[in-house]
Amino acid sequence: QVQLVESGGGLVQAGASLRLSCAASGRTSSSYAMGWFREAPGKEREFVAAASWSGGSTYYADSVKGRFRFTISRDNAENTVYLQMNSLKPEDTAVYYCAARRSAIKIYNVWTMYDYWGQGTQVTVSS
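-> structure tokens emitted (127 positions)
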């Protein structure tokens, strides 16, 4: 079992930056692919970004691609995954969740492929 706890959300103005963190505990000796998803009111859960165990492979949703707009990274020594979010837009407003799945190599962009989830952190971007 792995427990995930997100932090770093908040209320910011459009154009600002936030860095979300996801701290893992429990059986962290195994290899896990990590992902970030978000869920806005009235909308389905949406893929944001994912990283392989090594961090060498990453994948982003089209909505967050762009010049350093969102960046996923991980520090396996600290059992923490980050989501750096720059140039935030009102449409980025959502609850952001991190997720984990045992995988040494692959990454996943479908939420049903993940086994473990955090409780979520609210990100609100005002215009």
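DSSP finds no helices and eleven strands in the chain.
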